[in-house]
Amino acid sequence: MAYNEQLNDRIREAIAVYPNVEEKHMFGGVCYMLDGKMCVGVVKEEMMCRIDPAIFEEVVERDGCRMMDFTGKTMKGYVYVNADGMKTKQDFEYWINLCVEYNKIAKASKKKNTGLSRSKKNATE
After folding, report:
1. What is the pLDDT of residues 51-107, one digit of tens each?
2. What is the pTM of this model?
3. Residue 88: φ, ψ to 5°
C-alpha cells in the first residue's frame, strides 16, 4: 500500500530535531516513534497524529481532521489529518507540536510477549 512520500519527508524533517526518533514502516505507511512511543506518521495521503485524548473532541472539529478508525472502532487520542488541515506551514507545525507535546506524557505501549521468553522460562524449570 502506497503512502504520500512528500508528506512523509515533511514529517521526517520536522521530527528529526528531537532525540530518540525511530522511523518504522507499519499500517501500510510510516510511523515515527519518539522515545519509544508512537508519535506521528503517514497512512496513505493523511498524517496520523497521536494527541492528548483530553483535547480529542476539540481537535477533531478542525478542518481536515477526522477520527482514526483504523480497525472500524474509533481510537480516541488518534486522528487523521488530510491536506485541508495542513494548508500552511503553521497548520502543519500545529499538528507536529500537538503530537510531540503529548508524547512527553504518553505511556509507551506494553511490549508483547513473543513466546520466546516463555520458552526460556520453561527451559530453566
Report:
1. 999 999 999 999 999 999 867 888 889 999 999 999 999 999 999 999 999 999 998
2. 0.84
3. -115, 165
10 Å CB burial of residue 84 (0-12, 13-18, 19+) is exposed
**Phi, psi at residue 80, to the nearest 5°?**
-105, 140
How far apart CA 23 and CA 54 sit, in angstroms, is 26
Compute the distance between CA of residue 33 and CA of residue 42 in angstroms, rounded to an integer. Answer: 12
* Cα 95 to Cα 83: distance, rounded to the nearest angstrom: 12
Q: In this structure, are residues 81 and 46 in contact, taking their beta carbons and an 8 Å threshold?
A: yes
- Does an H or E element contain 122, and which? helix 116-124
In the numeric block, the cell 500545529 is attached to 94
For cell 488530510, the residue is 82
Domains within the chain, CATH numbers bracketed: 5-124 (3.90.1150.30)
